[in-house]
Specification:
With 292 residues, the protein is of the alpha/beta class. The protein contains 7 helices and 10 strands. The protein folds into 2 domains: 134 residues, Histidine kinase-like ATPase, C-terminal domain (Heat Shock Protein 90, 2-Layer Sandwich); 93 residues, STAS domain (Transcription Regulator spoIIAA, 2-Layer Sandwich), CATH 3.30.750. Helix 5 runs parallel beside helix 6. The longest helix is centred in the N-terminal third of the chain and has 21 residues.
Length: 292
């Protein structure tokens, strides 16, 4: 996160037209490869590395959300459905002025082609809705292509995201020669700029802030359960939610619906609202967008 600006502020900036760079674009790609432990606990490190790479290329916040969420959904699927696999999961990122390409490699897994999975049925009645499969449904709408390769128990998923801007001035960052990985000293291993927090808010709400990813769902659910019958969640400080976080919301909504209630979400930023829209949850929850 740059300074004190919100994701919404930066997303609005990224939608403004940016003039083409004068003359030919001379910048080369930035590349990095890292291996991560097969655990949800690795997500903080992954997000820190991805954020650093995207900021170095000046990627807008709307594109950064799509890239970050796609990486999380693919990584958590590898962890969740192959917890006993051997070896660490590899992440490769290549950023150019035009697009970002990412690959995740599991060195020890059964074949599982996510492209063969059907889309989630987002029109089911709420009592029949399940979060399973929703992550893949979402990322198909957020990136341009997803390719799957399998050989010798090695699964490799590669996706590409075209950036909204034809040319982006990179943020000021430590210099690195083209095609060389940034050094361990330059790349952070973790970051706390979007750490998840949950607390009691004003007017009987529950306030969320930071990033509700797969690693934070147990914390969120425990707090919500202990809070009793609270029907309004304030997302003013929440910058990011993945399909795992949607599962937390869906379970609370079902409990409320059983007694005639409905989950109300207020101050929802534009990125999270798009996630609700793509998943059909904007028709399930009572959603109030930020600034409305």
């Amino acid at each position: 996160m740059r300074g004190n600006r919100s994701w919404g502020d930066l997303a609005a900036m990224s939608q403004r037209s940016v003039p083409s760079a004068p003359g030919p674009v001379a910048q080369e790609s930035l590349r990095e490869r890292r291996d991560f432990a097969r655990s949800f606990d690795s997500l903080e490190q992954i997000f820190a590395v991805v954020r650093f790479m995207l900021d170095a290329r000046g990627v807008g916040e709307a594109d950064a959300y799509a890239i970050t969420m796609t990486i999380e959904e693919l990584f958590t699927n590898m962890v969740k459905y192959n917890a006993g696999g051997l070896g660490r999961i590899g992440l490769e990122i290549e950023c150019t002025n035009q697009d970002v390409t990412c690959s995740l490699t599991d060195p020890d897994s059964d074949r599982f082609d996510i492209n063969a999975m059907p889309d989630a049925n987002i029109h089911l009645p709420v009592e029949q809705r399940r979060p399973g499969g929703l992550g893949i449904h979402l990322i198909r709408r957020m990136v341009d292509s997803i390719d799957y390769d399998y050989a010798g128990r090695r699964s490799r998923i590669t996706f590409r995201k075209t950036l909204n801007r034809a040319w982006a001035e990179p943020a000021e960052t430590p210099s690195a020669r083209p095609h060389e990985p940034l050094s361990d000293r330059q790349l952070p291993e973790s970051g706390d700029d979007t750490m998840f927090e949950i607390s009691h808010g004003p007017d009987g709400t529950i306030a969320f802030s930071g990033r509700l990813d797969a690693a934070q769902c147990a914390k969120a659910e425990a707090f919500i359960d202990a809070a009793g019958v609270v029907q309004a969640f304030d997302f003013a400080g929440l910058e990011y939610i993945s399909s795992a976080g949607l599962g937390v919301l869906l379970r609370r909504h079902k409990r409320l619906a059983a007694s005639g209630g409905r989950l109300r979400l207020i101050n929802v930023n534009s990125h999270i609202f798009d996630i609700f829209r793509f998943s059909g949850f904007d028709q399930v929850f009572d959603v109030q967008r930020a600034g409305s």
